[in-house]
Design a protein that fits this description.
heterodimer, A: 112 residues, mainly beta, six-stranded mixed beta sheet, globular, B: 114 residues
């Protein structure tokens, strides 16, 4: 019940294309769904996050789509750029984030 | 600057030696975490602490030890009992008055066992 399943494991997208990464969770008590971006040799950093009372959140080229009934959420990167090449982790937590569960990560490569 | 400082950034160790990785934060966050990341892998929780003088084992605590004597500091010791210690280690914090649920990560420490 604590798992967060993330797919795909890796993704190659042409510059200007749309990158889509999907996650599914089981625990309906989760109330915070962040996406973290990690560049090689660096620590992850929060990219965008959503709470279950909304179905979509957009920040620039990055959008989270959230489907509460299906217990799924996804990250869409519009107009993908080579600088977006990184590893992306979805996550879920409840009660202030003190127990955050991470997905396995997706390695994105954007071809110039 | 507010943030999390991990040191050293790179560390080499001979087999059988204990090493200690430092994590210091000035964000005034209550909770601190240690994660292990292997190449191309996700984040695995080693230990966490939600308050000074208290900590709990995560999913892969065997071969590791921690202490939390000060709010600002959460050092991780990789002991000789850890069979495969070569990895990238990440410290993270959460909490404070403006807590949104976001985890803040340090830059990581890369440990290589020779």
């Amino acid at each position: 019940q604590q798992q967060v399943k993330q797919s795909p494991q890796s993704l190659i997208v042409q510059k200007g294309g749309i990158s889509i990464i999907n996650c599914a969770y089981e625990n309906t008590a989760f109330d915070y769904f962040p996406w973290y971006q990690q560049f090689p040799g660096k620590g992850p950093a929060l990219l965008i996050a959503i709470r279950p009372d909304v179905s979509e959140k957009k920040e620039g080229r990055f959008t989270i789509s959230f489907n509460k009934s299906a217990k799924q959420f996804s990250l869409h990167i519009m107009d993908s750029q080579p600088g977006d090449s990184a590893t992306y982790f979805c996550a879920a937590s409840k009660g202030g984030g003190f127990k955050t569960i991470f997905g396995a990560g997706t390695r994105l490569f954007v071809k110039a | 600057d507010g943030g999390i400082t991990q040191s050293p950034k790179y560390l080499f160790r001979k087999e059988g030696q204990n090493v200690t990785l430092s994590c210091e934060q000035n964000l005034n966050h209550d909770a601190m975490y240690w994660y292990r990341q292997d190449p191309g892998q996700g984040l695995r929780l080693i230990y966490y602490s939600q308050i000074v003088n208290d900590f709990q084992k995560g999913d892969i605590a065997e071969g590791y030890s921690v202490s939390r004597e000060k709010k600002e500091s959460f050092p991780l010791t990789v002991t000789s009992a850890q069979k495969n210690p070569t990895a990238f280690y990440l410290c993270a914090t959460i909490g404070g008055q403006m807590n949104t649920g976001e985890l803040f990560f340090g830059e990581g420490s890369r440990l290589t066992v020779l």
